[in-house]
Write a structure and sequence with these properties.
The structure holds 2 protein chains of 2 kinds. In chain A, strands 2-8-7-6-5-3-4 form a 7-stranded mixed sheet, with helices on both faces. A 3-stranded antiparallel sheet of chain A has the order 9-10-12. Chain A has 15 helices and 12 strands. By secondary structure, chain A is α/β, with parallel strands linked by helices. Helices cover 41% and strands 19% of the residues of chain B. In chain B, strands 1-2-3 form a 3-stranded antiparallel sheet. The longest helix of chain B is centred in the last third of the chain and has 21 residues. The chains are: A alpha/beta, B alpha+beta.
C-alpha cells in the first residue's frame, strides 16, 4: 500500500506508541485522584504540558488538552466570541476556506447575531495581512485564519497577520492542525493568541489535541464537568493519548527541517510528473506551501472514480469532489480559490510524509496518468471538449 | 461495511458496454458538468428491439456502475419494456446504493428514456410526451 493521505491522518510512530504504553499498563490512575498512584499520572500530565508548550514557544499555563483539533477550534472561537460580546464586539474575520470545524462554528455564531466576514483567499489560496488590517473594525472580536490549508496546503503569513491583530488589539486564533509538527510554530514570535492542533496529524494518536490560549484570555467551556484543565475542559484526561501526542510532537518538531527536505524532493517529482497531464492545474501557492500537500484538478473526470481506481492500484489519496464530500457541491476550498464546479469535481489531493519513498512516487506517477486517461476515455464531457463542442477550462 | 456493494464495484471496475457508437439510432445525454455527472447512452434499434447499447459517463463510481448496469438491463429488450426500467430497478440490481448516490440511478433511468425519445423524434414516431418528463432538474436543484 502507498499511503498518500497524511493530511487525513498519519501512521502512529513507534515513539508515540511506546510513550503511551506505560500509561495504559502501569500508570493508569486518574490524575484527579489524591493518592500517589493517581498523582503519578498527574505528574506525567504536567510534564506533557511543559513539553508541548516548549514545542510551541508557549508557557505551560496556556496549554489545554482537548479531544482534537475540532474541539480546540470550537472552544477558541466560542470563547473569543463570548469575550467580545461582553464588550459589544460581534464582528469576526475569517476566510472562506477554513476547516468546517471553524466555518460551522462561525455559522452557529451568525445565528446568534454575530457578523462573520470571510476574506477572499485568491487563486493561490493566501490571505494578506493588508486584507486583515482593512477588515478589522472597532467591534471586531476575533480574527481566525488557518496556518496551512488542509486541501491545497497554502501557508498563510501568520506572524504578519498576528502582528496586525496585536496592533489593533484584536484576538487572533489560528487553526494549525495541518501545520503543527510540519512547520515551525512560536506563538510569541508569531503573535498568536490562540492555536489549535491535533495529535494524529504528526504521527500521534487520534482523539487528542491541544488548544493554546495566551494567559488572560477567558475561555468558555465546550465540555462542562470537573476541574480538569483548570476547569476549562471537563472530563478525565486521556493520559495515554496525551503522552503519545506529546512524544510525537516533540519528535516531529525536532525533525522539521530534515523531514521537509526529504518530502520536498518527493514533492518536486510528483508536481513535475502530474503537471505533464494535459488540461490539469495545480492548486495552492508556488512559494508558500506545506511540503507534503499536493493538490491538482484534472479536467473532464470526477474525483471519486479517480480515488476508487487509485485504491485498486494500492494508492490511498483524497479528493475534494462532491461525491466524496457527501453533498452535491465540490470542496468549498476549491470553490474559494475560484475553481469552477466542473474543474473542482476532478480534484486529487496527495499528502505525503517522510515515510514515503521514491518508489511510491514512481507508482503514483505511473498510476495517476493511467487512471485519468482511462476515465477521460469514457467521459462524454471530455470527448465533447476534444471534439470542440465544449470549451476546455484548463490550458493544455 | 464499505461504501459500495460488490456488484457496484464490479460494474465500476469492469463496466459493460462502455464506449461510443457510430450511427446510433437513439442517443440520450443527461446530467451536467457543474453537478459532476453526465451520462450518455447510445442505442442500436432493430424492429423496436435494442440490439446494441453503449454508454459513456463522467461521474463518480456509482454513476459509472449505474450506467453499466442499466445497459445490461436493456440490451436485447423491446422498447416498451426498457421504458419500464426504473431507477429503483437499477439500484436493486446493484444490490443497493448509498442514499446520497441514488440520483446516479435516476440519471441512468433518464438517460435510457432520453435515448428512446431521441429515436422516436428522429423517426417521427408519435409518443406521449408525459412519459418522458424528467426529474433531473429537481434532483440537482
Amino acid at each position: 500500500m502507498i499511503y498518500a493521505d497524511n493530511a487525513a491522518t498519519t501512521q502512529m510512530s513507534r515513539k508515540a506508541i511506546e510513550a503511551m504504553l506505560p500509561y495504559m499498563e502501569e500508570v493508569w490512575g486518574n490524575p484527579s485522584s489524591l493518592y500517589v498512584f493517581g498523582q503519578k499520572a498527574k505528574e506525567a500530565l504536567d510534564e506533557a504540558r511543559e513539553r508541548v508548550a516548549a514545542c510551541l514557544g508557549a508557557s505551560a499555563g496556556g496549554i489545554y488538552f482537548t479531544s482534537g483539533g475540532s474541539e480546540a477550534d470550537n472552544q477558541a472561537i466560542l470563547s473569543a466570541a463570548k469575550a467580545g460580546e461582553k464588550k459589544g464586539k460581534k464582528h469576526i474575520i475569517s476566510t472562506a476556506f477554513e476547516h468546517h470545524a471553524v466555518l460551522h462554528t462561525l455559522e452557529k455564531l451568525k445565528k446568534d447575531g454575530f457578523e462573520i466576514e470571510l476574506l477572499d483567499v485568491h487563486e493561490n489560496g493566501i490571505v494578506s495581512p493588508e486584507q486583515v488590517a482593512k477588515a478589522i473594525r472597532d467591534d471586531t472580536a476575533l480574527v481566525t485564519i488557518m496556518y496551512a490549508n488542509n486541501e491545497i496546503g497554502s501557508v498563510q503569513p501568520i506572524a504578519e497577520i498576528g502582528a496586525v491583530c496585536r496592533e489593533r488589539r484584536v484576538l487572533f486564533h489560528t487553526d494549525a492542525v495541518q501545520a503543527a509538527g510540519h512547520l515551525p510554530i512560536d506563538v510569541q514570535k508569531q503573535n498568536i493568541d490562540m492555536l489549535s492542533l491535533s495529535g494524529h496529524k504528526f504521527h500521534g494518536p487520534k482523539g487528542v489535541g491541544v488548544l493554546y490560549a495566551r494567559k488572560g484570555i477567558p475561555l468558555t467551556n465546550v465540555i462542562e464537568g470537573g476541574a480538569q484543565e483548570r476547569g476549562k475542559r471537563g472530563g478525565t484526561e486521556n493520559v495515554p493519548a496525551i503522552m503519545g501526542m506529546t512524544a510525537a510532537l516533540e519528535d516531529a518538531c525536532a525533525h522539521i527541517e530534515e523531514n521537509n527536505e526529504k518530502i520536498l524532493k518527493l514533492r518536486e517529482r510528483l508536481v513535475e510528473g502530474l503537471t505533464k497531464i494535459p488540461h490539469s492545474v495545480q492548486n495552492g501557492d508556488r512559494e508558500h506551501f506545506l511540503p507534503g500537500t499536493i493538490s491538482f484538478c484534472f479536467e473532464g473526470i470526477e474525483g471519486e472514480s479517480l480515488l476508487l481506481l487509485l485504491d485498486d492500484k494500492g494508492i490511498c489519496a483524497s479528493s475534494g469532489s462532491a461525491c466524496t464530500s457527501g453533498s452535491l457541491d465540490p470542496s468549498h476550498v476549491l470553490l474559494a480559490i475560484g475553481r469552477p464546479h466542473e474543474v473542482a469535481h476532478g480534484s486529487l489531493r496527495l499528502s505525503i510524509g517522510e515515510n514515503n519513498t521514491e518508489e511510491d512516487v514512481d507508482q503514483i506517477l505511473k498510476a495517476v496518468p493511467e487512471v485519468v486517461g482511462y476515465l477521460r476515455g469514457i467521459s462524454p464531457l471530455w470527448k465533447d471538449k476534444l471534439a470542440g463542442k465544449r470549451e476546455f477550462l484548463l490550458p493544455e | 461495511m464499505s461504501l459500495y456493494s460488490e456488484k457496484v464495484m464490479d460494474h465500476f471496475r469492469n463496466p459493460r458496454n462502455v464506449g461510443s457508437m457510430e450511427n446510433a439510432d437513439g442517443v440520450g445525454e443527461v446530467g451536467n458538468a457543474k453537478c459532476g455527472d453526465i451520462m450518455k447512452i447510445y442505442l442500436k434499434i432493430d424492429d423496436n428491439v435494442v440490439t446494441d447499447v453503449k454508454f459513456e459517463t463522467f461521474g463518480c463510481g456509482s454513476a459509472i456502475a449505474s450506467s453499466s448496469m442499466a445497459t445490461e438491463m436493456i440490451k436485447g429488450k423491446p422498447l416498451d419494456e426498457i421504458l419500464t426500467v426504473t431507477n429503483k430497478a437499477v439500484t436493486e440490481a446493484l444490490d443497493g446504493l448509498p442514499a446520497h448516490k441514488l440520483h446516479c440511478s435516476v440519471l441512468a433511468e433518464e438517460a435510457i428514456r432520453a435515448a428512446v425519445k431521441d429515436y422516436y423524434d428522429k423517426n417521427g414516431i408519435a409518443y406521449d410526451a408525459a412519459q418522458f418528463s424528467t426529474s433531473c432538474a429537481a434532483c440537482h436543484a
